[in-house]
Inverse folding.
């Protein structure tokens, strides 16, 4: 399951990229108040990846950060290079897509 924060704004003549920082929890995003009906598994999610965009709508650059499932470390992907990322850099105003995974049981 994924959540998508739409980061574009449109009016009659323009479209702009919204660059406002949005606080997004890395662990324990609890959507219990928004779930309909009985839930076998509590709807609590942990962040495992983000896609970032920098630049303008007409051109820009995408990067990503992903949490490795085995070692629990964050990795930064930028074109053909991959390096260890800092957890403090995961959530930023450049986030375009955030990927969450529901916890088991």
């Amino acid at each position: 399951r994924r959540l998508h924060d739409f980061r574009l704004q449109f009016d009659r003549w323009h479209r702009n990229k919204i660059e406002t920082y949005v606080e997004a929890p890395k662990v324990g995003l609890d959507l219990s108040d928004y779930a309909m009906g009985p839930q076998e598994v509590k709807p609590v999610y942990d962040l495992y990846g983000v896609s970032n965009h920098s630049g303008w709508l007409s051109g820009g650059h995408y990067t990503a950060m992903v949490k490795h499932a085995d070692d629990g470390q964050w990795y930064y992907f930028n074109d053909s290079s991959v390096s260890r990322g800092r957890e403090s850099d995961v959530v930023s105003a450049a986030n375009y897509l955030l990927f969450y995974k529901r916890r088991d049981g």
